Amino acid sequence: MTTISTTGLSVIDLSVGFGKGAKRTNVLDGINLDVADGEFVAVVGPSGSGKSTLLNAVAGFITPDAGSILVDGEQVTGPGPSRCVVFQEYAVFPWLTVEQNIGFGTQLRTWSGDRSQRGAIVDRYLELMGLIAFRDALPKTLSGGMRQRVAIARAYAVDPAILLMDEPFAALDAQTREHMQEALLDITRQERRTVLFVTHQVEEALYLADRVVVMGARPARITEIVEVPWRSERHHDVKLTTEFIDLRRHVEHLLHTDG
Ligand SMILES: Nc1ncnc2c1ncn2[C@@H]1O[C@H](COP(=O)(O)OP(=O)(O)OP(=O)(O)O)[C@@H](O)[C@H]1O
Ligand SMILES: [Mg+2]
After folding, report:
1. Would residue 191 count as lying in a domain?
2. What is the domain range of residue 112?
3. What pLDDT band is residue 112 in, cutting at 50, 70 and 90?
4. Closest Cα to atom 6, ligand 1: which residue?
5. What's the 164 CA to ligand 1 centre distance in angstroms?
6. Whole-angstrom Cα distance, residue 213 to residue 195?
7. How many domains, the chain?
8. Which residues pair with 85 in a beta bridge?
9. Per the confidence metrics, is the pTM higher than 0.85?
10. How high does pLDDT run on average in the chain?
11. Nearest CA owner, ligand 1 atom 2
């Protein structure tokens, strides 16, 4: 029995397939997941297990075969400003400066207050993402990591009910990726947001998220949802603790036995 929450995300008995007629295959099979308001949930699973499909269904890019998705109690029927997606390919507008890209996010915002605050909001995210010095730069002059900072800042500027991130750091080198994880943690400490974050890296998932959803092979079901115990004490050294290493092994074992 699923209780329907009026805040955060509720995925209820979600099934998604692709292809027509006899060729149709079921990719997601009866997924149930609740993400509380302000919670950061990561999704890991073997390649092809439907992680992006789940995220795209929440974004409203895919119509499910069965089940429903609710964001703040409202049924998802297509894309909308309640959900903002950050993709792997640093999807920023190449003809707009860093400041204008983030400013674009504020235009999508569902305003309840004073629109003259726009500039202050842009400044806030420029600062939180370490972009002040690059305010007037065009994306082509920035590194991949910086561009992804712009994409994340723009998504935050929209102020969506839920942020969806599909392997946002996968194209970055290991060192930049670690910097980006810290940047994301910083912004998460300053502003709690509801986040659904897809990643291939178990370590990244356990480091960033409050809970980690482990998906099984196709048709994908949730194998286990792992509670992350370190939450507020999240800092780089946590990765070296026995607790972290044991949990990482546990998740990797789940992935290998079901993948
Ligand atoms: N638009 C589509 N049309 C047909 N099949 C699709 C479509 N999108 C996804 N699939 C299939 O659904 C399955 C799940 O794909 P999905 O992209 O969700 O996996 P994933 O877990 O995100 O994989 P990866 O880790 O490689 O990104 C795959 O077998 C894929 O081929
Ligand atoms: Mg994917």
Report:
1. no
2. 92-159
3. low
4. 18
5. 17
6. 13
7. 1
8. 164
9. yes
10. 89
11. 18
